[in-house]
Hints:
The structure is a homodimer. By secondary structure, chain A is an alpha/beta fold.
Amino acid sequence: xxxxxxxxxxxxxxxxxxxxxxxxxxxxxxxxxxxxxxxxxxxxxxxxxxxxxxxxxxxxxxxxxxxxxxxxxxxxxxxxxxxxxxxxxxxxxxxxxxxxxxxxxxxxxxxxxxxxxxxxxxxxxxxxxxxxxxxxxxxxxxxxxxxxxxxxxxxxxxxxxxxxxxxxxxxxxxxxxxxxxxxxxxxxxxxxxxxxxxxxxxxxxxxxxxxxxxxxxxxxxxxxxxxxxxxxxxxxxxxxxxxxxxxxxxxxxxxxxxxxxxxxxxxxxxxxxxxxxxxxxxxxxxxxxxxxxxxxxxxxxxxxxxxxxxxxxxxxxxxxxxxxxxxxxxxxxxxxxxxxxxxxxxxxxxxxxxxxxxxxxxxxxxxxxxxxxxxxxxxxxxxxxxxxxxxxxxxxxxxxxxxxxxxxxxxxxxxxxxxxxxxx
Amino acid sequence: xxxxxxxxxxxxxxxxxxxxxxxxxxxxxxxxxxxxxxxxxxxxxxxxxxxxxxxxxxxxxxxxxxxxxxxxxxxxxxxxxxxxxxxxxxxxxxxxxxxxxxxxxxxxxxxxxxxxxxxxxxxxxxxxxxxxxxxxxxxxxxxxxxxxxxxxxxxxxxxxxxxxxxxxxxxxxxxxxxxxxxxxxxxxxxxxxxxxxxxxxxxxxxxxxxxxxxxxxxxxxxxxxxxxxxxxxxxxxxxxxxxxxxxxxxxxxxxxxxxxxxxxxxxxxxxxxxxxxxxxxxxxxxxxxxxxxxxxxxxxxxxxxxxxxxxxxxxxxxxxxxxxxxxxxxxxxxxxxxxxxxxxxxxxxxxxxxxxxxxxxxxxxxxxxxxxxxxxxxxxxxxxxxxxxxxxxxxxxxxxxxxxxxxxxxxxxxxxxxxxxxxx
Lengths: 424, 424
């Protein structure tokens, strides 16, 4: 399909340069990055990005939960405000595309668009959300959830990592305990690698996420009794790890029963004292239940609650659900999704429609604004791992779609209905 | 039963003072101590004990694996050498009696004996073995195993904790990388709290351990694939923690099948990356199989090896046994055990015979010397926990038995057959 001449494209060289630079921070030397939130590596990446924003004429804002914003007013103080972003934190030993691509593409898209435009009609803000990943501090999407009013600021600041350090303390330490008011945008766009292989399998290069799955993050505490693994008679043992093992197997069984309508995991287990010759007295399980439908989430939670006492008792332990973080299932803005597909068609890029099962900052922001995540493929569906990979061509194709969406939204003065109608 | 006037008794006040003092190092404030080997707390305890030995006229020796010895020659250079000891390291958040009692009682017994004796016929050495517990560095009994020639020195020095620090490095850091030759004693005695409630149940106050159970310490590595817990389809997940859960349940099942002839545990699991929203790529299980008979150890190891592939495959993972530390089952010196019982009778202390399932330094030393562990009761059988407790009366009763055993062995010039015959 021939390219429409009026389409705006991203400066692919700028995008590449930004991606290469940001990948240096926390680089593990094997293609991955180890840049958990508010670590020195994360601070270094943010410091660099902040300088990059300033050098390009953006005003830098940091709010009370440490979200970093770069705002550029191209159309006067009363113009609509378009926010584009993602996050610079990574999983421990994670990949270099997850999050960073969305932030780099946001900056490159706005830079590319403004250079080719004489009379912009919108203002723009690039967002780097604090703690999207939730690896070091739970829950994930913390900065965007405070932004969207879903989570209380003081509660968020008081979250602690496994060493007892709080978000608030680490924000101060890294220099990101800000005092600026967050911007109040009119819509939010985020571009991200897929994290599954559906696009690769289908040969698609662009996909809007139509729905976001709901999730229950359930923390289960198993309590046994600390004792010597030698002399303590087997029948007297109250082994918290054994109790945990029965629960882990059951959590998986729930997903097997529900087939493709429920995803489950127990991916972190904190064992105390975790010494080879002490019967463990305590195990804390970080369990996730994810489903596209609330009814399935309810069923899985009820099933787990019903099963826990017997599972724990098989190891003479007790199990208690100590917290549940609930992320409801929902839909992204359908106009933004439609616009994505139309632009993809105009670029001749194969497209498909997807749901997102993983969380994204756009899920939180979507609670208060029209929002969307646009996906590009990830080779083999790999995510959260050093060998996560998306080719420069796919990064640029996604960047092109984002940039032309910016152009159409800008031309429509931020009116999405108009944007859908305004462009041939 | 009336007390035999000639029995030697421990200075109970000295023993109490020593126990109170040593319990300060690494005190957790709730009765327990947190004094893992070669930590600052452990170094402080050793530094104090070393000064205490020196002040009392003992020569201090530290060998190449960091065993600390206090030697006092009471009977000339060619006299038999009696070694008594235990260890000052504790489990993380462990109790204050395990190990420390044996070292304090050793010093108090020799001090009490020598003050009441005009012409000692033996020399004495108090031993504080390096890394009995094996909580920070595996395997346990490391210093005594090097002493007994069961483990290579260089290999022992190269063991690393979970932060990557080696035994050798931490010996240097704490000032216990010695250059002295270890003493060459003729026999070895150790007194220890029981770690089970058999004595309490039976009303016994003294028990020699006749046998030591064998143990296999098996390290199992489960390998899956690191991925996002959100989008990764359930059927594609290779979840190392789920594989671990199936193995943990099976390890317990082996003990249930074998009833009281096999004790098993998986007490430590190192999970990577242990992040709530990453399917874990790796889990290392620290598994123990303990039995009084070698045939049972062989059966349990063979059963586990046979079961591993299927258990791991249920989670689409693989499992590999990466190391096995083998501690053979065996018997302590029966003459020392008989002497213990005879002395207990003379003190009118109710006695019984036990096996030890947990490891003790005497198990390693027993490979090359006549050796014995004497047990005193522990309330509720608690061990490796802050509320581990033995009353001052029971500590003193054990100390009395130890001291009078020293007297009888000394009077017999270190000849155990003679010691058994020589005293009415």
